[in-house]
Design brief:
This protein folds into 3 domains: 303 residues, Glycoside hydrolase, family 3, N-terminal domain (TIM Barrel); 210 residues, Glycoside hydrolase family 3 C-terminal domain (Rossmann fold), CATH 3.40.50; 110 residues, Immunoglobulin-like. It has 678 residues and is of the alpha/beta class. Helix 13 links the parallel strand 11 and strand 12. Helix 13 crosses helix 15. Helices cover 24% and strands 19% of the residues. It has 16 helices and 26 strands. It has a 6-stranded mixed β-sheet with strand order 1-2-3-4-6-9. The longest helix is centred in the N-terminal third of the chain and has 17 residues.
Length: 678
């Protein structure tokens, strides 16, 4: 679907080279921490290859070769005489690109964010990396770690949620798994959270909000997981396009975080200038040389060190991660039984139970009607660059029919007045949200369609018990109909095995354990305004639960919210100061009749200071997985002291009374323990 952007290129010309020959810092930072191979040996070999390459060969390395997509892969030029295959990049964040053919469609990133399970996300990254390699790629263009500023963003489904710590740690886990097989590319750097105006919008943001929120989500993937490549965003930040934004690329990414790998542009319209981009640290223009072509040749003689710097990173990345032309995956890994089972497990963990008035799980048997436009739909998400084409998708109706658990299951058209329970499956599709130009783009609002709302109210008025199952990439408001129904489940876009997973949950074979990675407001007006028309927008510290808490406006379903089909009790927490961290511990007991998984969130209620701060900030979490009825377990949540920092011209940690609250969600009173930190 990226090829749709070619329609915009007619008449486009390259931006002229900037004549400003400002001071050029070409030295690279130490990279032994990042390079899986022998870093010194790699650098010696890079020196030898650079000495052997002509200027034209170096320039060709700095752009896609223009032949893609080659079976879904976007290549850069190889250097056969040095055994270097070039990069073969492939989408995307929920499975291998549909352009390659069939592959496992995992639940979207937002659904996986609702699992809060780092080990599971690492496993999914590993599986996607395996399938990318099997499809002939060596770079997977994932994960998306842009913070969800507003749930109307069309690509909300691709990221993990609204909180920068949560998004960052989930993304880092994915990178660790994927890079066991291929290189990962974390995207879109940075402050990208609007679709319809993404090519032109300039995000105005102060240094504190940029550092604490929008860059914080990228830092774990870079500094902790050692991501191999970074994709710059289409938008501008503070007046400079991200692909030529020196404070972002050469400043934060290179100087502050020490990133020594490759930065590639977003596709087609992601590069705007030659010399400014080169100076800022953009190494590769994708998917071909629209800007990094003849214009680059014109200035190469005046800036050979900058050319060498970019090509050094390109060579270093290939050598550090052991790329070789003969390395190939096993085609049998695509849609393997193991990966299908993993997709089903992820969908099971992701679904969030938002309301349950004694209706779930459905264990008694009887007649069950599955109604609504999504009852039997193959609804797995956006049809843009993240599209995946599995050979089969299990719908909700198919999942229930395959294993009905003592129920007589009827499909759309059944009379809800004649059944024991009605499930109404409604929500969003690629016709409502997705990547702009390839799908609808940004959402027009947060509510369901009028037709969906009318259907829910009609069924609820007729059926003895009604459960609503909603699908969609982010928050959906529920006010007109929530009080009329007995149960509500948010399944996001649950992947190709979603129907089986949802059947397991609804019929009580698996416990609900998903927790919202975002806030669902009572009305859209409770959130900051969403502007996808203007050429310039302003971002600050306040969005999602931070905004709602600061305003004192309760969410309908707060960040972190999610019900279980069992009961848990928590003892009083403890917090101790150790070497570089605070360790928060709490005993969790399953006091209900069924097994279940509990998630313990730790929020900081910060000390008073001169800077405005959120009343609560997420600083860590942990899970009690598969806690049996009657079982008790001590849950430990390490909180590194660096998570307590704020930006005030530099990172500082204000001294004073820090209150750590263990809670189930952002508005849960929870239980707190206070430490005085110097």
């Amino acid at each position: 679907m990226r090829w749709l952007l070619l329609l915009l290129l007619a008449g486009c010309t390259s931006v002229e080279a900037d004549d400003d020959d400002s001071a050029e810092e070409v030295a690279d930072v130490d990279h032994a921490w990042w390079c899986p191979a022998d870093a010194d040996a790699v650098e010696t070999r890079v020196d030898a290859i650079l000495a052997d390459l002509s200027q034209e060969e170096k320039i060709l390395q700095m752009a896609g070769d223009g032949t893609g997509p080659d079976d879904g892969r976007w290549p850069t030029p190889p250097i056969p005489r040095h055994g270097l295959p070039g990069f073969r990049m492939i989408d995307g964040p929920r499975g291998v690109s549909s352009a390659t053919g069939a592959a496992t469609a995992f639940p979207v990133g937002m659904a996986r964010g609702a699992t809060w399970d780092l080990d599971l996300e690492r496993e999914i990254g590993r599986a996607m990396g395996t399938e990318a390699l099997a499809a002939g790629a060596n770079v997977l263009l994932a994960p998306t770690v842009n913070v969800l500023r507003h749930p109307r963003w069309g690509r909300a489904q691709e990221t993990y949620g609204e909180d920068p710590l949560h998004v960052g740690l989930m993304g880092a886990a994915f990178v660790e798994g994927a890079q066991e097989h291929v290189l990962a590319s974390v995207k879109h750097f940075a402050a990208n959270s609007i679709e319809n105006s993404r090519f032109v919008v300039d995000v105005q943001i102060d240094e504190r909000a940029l550092r604490e929120v929008y860059l914080r989500a990228f830092e774990p993937a870079v500094r902790d997981a050692g991501v191999a490549t970074v994709m710059s965003a289409y938008n501008s930040v503070n007046g400079a396009f991200c692909s030529e934004n020196a404070p972002l690329l050469d400043g934060v990414l290179r100087a502050d975080w020490g990133f020594p790998g490759v930065v590639e542009s977003d596709w087609f319209l992601g590069t705007h200038s030659t010399l400014p981009s080169l100076q800022a640290g953009l190494d590769i223009e994708m998917p071909f040389a629209r800007i990094y072509g003849d214009d680059l040749r014109e200035i190469a003689g005046q800036h050979p060190d900058l050319i060498d710097r970019a090509v050094r990173r390109i060579l270093r990345t290939q050598l550090c991660f052991g790329l070789a032309a003969e390395v190939a995956g096993d085609p049998l890994d695509l849609e393997s039984a193991e990966h299908k089972a993993l997709s089903r497990r992820a969908a099971t963990r992701a679904a969030v139970l938002l309301k349950n008035e004694g209706v779930l799980p459905l264990e008694s048997g009887g007649t069950l009607a599955v109604l609504g436009p999504l009852a039997d739909a193959d609804n797995i998400g956006d049809t843009g660059s993240s599209a995946v084409a599995p050979s089969d998708v299990v719908s909700l109706l198919e999942g229930l029919l395959a294993s009905p658990g003592g129920w007589t299951v009827l499909g759309p058209g059944a009379d809800p007045a004649t059944v024991d329970v009605a499930i109404v499956a409604v929500g969003l599709t690629s016709a409502d949200e997705g990547e702009y130009l390839a799908s609808f783009g940004d959402r027009v609002g947060l509510a369901l369609s009028a037709a969906d709302e009318a259907l829910i109210l009609s069924v609820a008025a007729s059926a003895p018990r009604t459960i609503v199952l909603i699908e969609g990439g982010s928050a959906i408001t529920v006010e007109p109909w929530i009080d009329a129904v007995d149960g509500l489940v948010h399944a996001f876009y649950p992947g190709d095995q979603g129907g089986h997973a949802l059947a397991d949950l609804l019929l009580g074979r698996e416990p609900f354990s998903g927790r919202l990675p975002l806030s669902v407001p009572r009305q859209e007006a409770d959130l900051p305004a969403f502007d996808n028309d203007s050429d310039q927008v302003a971002y600050d510290l306040w969005h999602g639960h931070r905004h709602l808490l600061r305003q004192g406006t309760p969410a309908r379903f707060p960040f972190g919210y999610g019900l279980s089909t069992t009961e848990f009790a928590w003892a009083s927490p403890t917090a101790t100061l150790g070497e570089g961290e605070v360790l928060v511990q709490v005993d969790v007991s399953n006091t209900g009749a069924r097994a279940g998984t509990e998630t313990v969130l730790v929020f900081l209620e910060p000390p008073l200071g001169s800077l405005d701060r959120s009343p609560r900030e997420l600083v860590g979490w942990a899970q009690a997985l598969g806690l049996s009825s009657g079982e008790e377990r001590t849950i430990a949540v390490p909180v590194p002291l660096e998570r307590l920092r704020i930006w005030d011209g530099g990172w500082i940690r204000p001294p004073g009374e820090h209150r750590f609250v263990v809670a189930r969600h952002a508005e849960d009173a929870g239980q707190g323990v206070t430490l005085s930190l110097p």
